[in-house]
Design goal:
alpha/beta, Rossmann fold, Dimethylsulfoxide Reductase, domain 2, Barwin-like endoglucanases, 3 domains, 7-stranded mixed beta sheet, 22 helices, 28 strands, globular, binds iron/sulfur cluster, oxidoreductase, NADH dehydrogenase activity, metal-binding
């Protein structure tokens, strides 16, 4: 694919990278994509785009793309190309054999946040109705599963409260654990526009990220906390709000559970939670915490935006609850310009969660123990739904190591590179009898696969994505699938081959089924999406365009729920053996494990992961900028080049994880969030020393 020539037609489709969900005119000449032009009518981007969505689509016909199915008896054998019929029949035969020998719960599936809602829905349907268990999970496990838990607990809905436009009505913005300049660039532009108009910014982040001080924008406060102390900082902010009389009493009285508020208020008011008492722990000056708390509580409309720096901790869910507490205590919910807003990483991570990809939840976040919901699915799907939650990804891998889990169908995920504690992931995959990888390229996980099913790109399929503001948008097929099948067709063939009937002719029929069984998607159809451009769930026939701002008059759960958020130190503490704390993130030109962007011109801007290290720590170790360094944790070690910079504080190092040569997740550990098992990517105790290279 190259940006050349004169187009003769176009389709409007949605970017397959981040959760902003920009829409583009995909301009075509025949079967050739000529260019992607940001779509002015796109409600998420309004004609804007970033370097990924605008230019990074050359991977679609990259020479390394796999277009034929492949099988092999063992992972030591060479791959053998086969036709689709043989690949599907072989996979189904293996799944049936394994279930006959080891029981129906010995197999499972992983959905992809890069795939469409329709494809995700079919994978979880295959697992629940075809395999007969709930062993389905999603990559949201390793990113925003604490958001799902925390926001559902506090408000009753596992989603952000606002649309992106809402930021233009915000007066004070807290940005915590998110770097939108790199991760959500088009939203970052809108945020900076609002800041230039006079809104105030509070950044809570261990690094001095770009937006702390960039042209015409300067944060009012930067709280450079020690990695792993989010809960302590947020509870200190709450302490100031409660003890200085900054609570919105009317909001709390009218909208929240009073007894729970009183309990929480007494908890945070304890002197041990004051900014002064926690200063040595968090490394944030107490006066900065006090100033930030006063500004958020009394600085007009207060909006909180957060990212993976909140969720990917052992206290990720607690941190989301702490954010929800702050928003309720200050009355910053239920209107434009305020709210609790997770910046979702992947293009369809919201959608993959909505579609029932978690092992404990059916589509629309109904628990599998809900008898009425299961009865509805049984009537429609003609199959009993297991009432017990299935296994999460780390538990599937652990059960495989224990000999109890034997086969895994992975659609569009590279868990060996993206999931923490690579050695554990490899051991789990190696212990399975049948690993099926469905992807564009032979990714790292495919090294452990017995079947490779070539996937299709977003340019080759019809469907929908749901962005971070709950906006459902069409993905339109602009070229035929080079591999011969769209991803949903592969899943359907697999279901048919194991003996479970699926008979969709088009993804629009899958969406009709989603809308019929998922209350928050009521009334969504391709016709309606074509007419309206997009729909923000929750929606129904009475509100066909959906709901830009949620919880206007009351919370979905009724009264808002305050929860005590006791700080618990992570096991990853700097000590004599591992004296530095490693945190990880991403960069503008690359996307996640880089499977797509590394195969585009974007690699010219970022062709390797670097380790950011403070000049003081570098000098102590004799490390100069550009030197090779070895980073070692209790989980493993890797080698990469140093980038000496004061963007990170002394004692903190930072890297990206886009390149398999680095394998940053060899170093990250198996620590995870107490409620959801979301890995603690953001804190790993490490030692760093000079190296001669990899
Ligand atoms: Fe928009 Fe995100 Fe795609 Fe960039 S990567 S064009 S910000 S959706």
């Amino acid at each position: 694919v190259a940006e050349t020539g004169t187009p003769d037609r176009f389709e409007v489709t949605t970017c397959a990278y981040c959760g902003v969900g920009c829409t583009f005119r995909a301009e075509m000449r025949g079967e050739e994509l000529v260019r992607m032009v940001p779509w002015k009518e796109g409600k998420a981007n309004r004609g804007h785009s970033c370097v990924k969505g605008r230019f990074a689509w050359g991977y679609a016909n990259h020479r390394e793309r796999i277009l034929s199915p492949m099988i092999r008896a063992s992972i030591d054998d060479p791959w053998r190309e086969v036709g689709w019929d043989e690949a599907i029949a072989h996979t189904a035969s293996e799944f049936r054999r394994i279930q006959a020998e080891h029981g129906k719960r010995a197999i499972g599936g992983i959905t992809s946040s890069r795939c469409t809602n329709e494809e995700t829905f079919l994978v979880q349907k295959l697992v629940r109705a075809g395999f007969g268990n709930n062993n389905v999970d999603t990559c949201a496990r390793v990113c925003h599963s604490p958001t799902g838990y925390g926001l559902k607990t506090a408000f009753g809905t596992s989603a952000g409260t606002q649309d992106f436009d809402s930021v233009m009505a915000a007066d004070t913005i807290i940005l915590i654990g998110a770097n939108p300049t790199d991760g959500h660039p088009v939203f970052a532009s809108r945020l900076k526009q609002r800041l230039r108009q006079g809104a105030k910014l509070i950044v809570i982040d261990p690094r001095r990220i770009d937006i702390v001080r960039s042209p015409h924008v300067e944060a009012a406060h930067h709280l450079p906390l020690r990695p792993g102390t989010n809960v302590a900082v947020l509870t200190a902010v709450a302490h100031v709000i409660v003890t200085e009389g900054l609570v919105d009493e009317d909001f709390v009285r009218d909208r929240c559970d009073r007894a729970e508020f009183d309990d929480w208020a007494a908890f945070v008011a304890d002197p041990r939670h004051s900014p002064e008492a926690t200063e040595s722990l968090t490394t944030v000056p107490a006066e900065s915490v006090r100033a930030a708390a006063r500004l958020y509580a009394k600085g007009g409309n207060g909006a909180i935006y957060y990212g993976l720096g909140v969720t990917e901790h052992s206290q990720g869910s607690t941190t989301v609850l702490a954010i929800a507490n702050l928003a309720m205590a200050t009355g910053n919910l239920g209107r434009a310009g305020v709210g609790v807003n997770p910046l979702r990483g992947q293009n369809n991570v919201q959608g993959s969660c909505d579609m029932g990809s978690f092992p404990h939840e059916l589509s629309g976040y109904r628990h599998v123990s809900d008898d009425a919901a299961r009865a509805m699915f049984r009537a429609l799907w003609g199959a009993d739904i297991d009432h017990e939650p299935g296994l999460r990804i780390p538990n599937m891998l652990g059960a495989a190591i224990d000999g109890e889990f034997k086969a895994l169908y992975i659609q569009g995920e590279d868990i060996l590179q993206s999931d923490p504690d690579t050695r554990h992931v490899a051991a789990g995959l190696a212990a399975m009898e049948c690993v099926v990888v469905q992807d564009l390229f032979l990714n790292e996980t495919a090294n452990y696969a017995h079947v490779f099913l070539p996937g299709s790109t977003f340019l080759e399929k019809n469907g929908t994505f749901t962005n971070a503001e709950r906006r459902i948008q069409r993905v339109r097929k602009v070229m035929r699938p080079l591999n011969g099948l769209e991803d949903w067709e592969i899943t359907q063939k697999l279901a048919q081959a194991i003996g479970y009937a699926m008979a969709y002719d088009h993804p629009s029929q899958i969406m009709d089924e989603i809308a019929a069984v998922t209350p928050t998607f009521a009334g969504v159809s391709y016709d309606r999406l074509d007419a309206l451009g997009s729909i923000q769930w929750p929606c129904n026939d009475a509100a066909p365009e959906g709901t830009p701002v949620m919880h206007l008059d009351g919370f979905v759960r009724g009264k808002g729920k305050f929860v005590r958020t006791e700080y618990v130190a992570t096991e990853e503490r700097a000590g004599p053996r591992f004296p530095l704390l490693l945190t990880t993130g991403r960069i503008l030109s690359q996307y996640n494990v880089g499977a797509q962007t590394r195969r585009t011109e974007n690699s010219r801007w970022h062709d390797e992961d670097r380790l950011e290290i403070h000049p003081h720590d570098a000098e102590q170790r004799g490390i100069l900028d550009g030197d090779w360094v070895k980073v070692a944790s209790r989980a493993g070690d890797t080698t990469l080049r140093a980038l000496v910079t004061d963007r990170v504080a002394p004692g903190v190092v930072y890297t990206t994880f886009h390149h398999p040569a680095t394998q940053a997740n060899v170093v990250t550990t198996d620590n995870s969030d107490w409620a959801t098992n979301c890995p603690e990517y953001k804190v790993t105790a490490v030692q760093v020393g000079r190296s001669n290279g990899p």
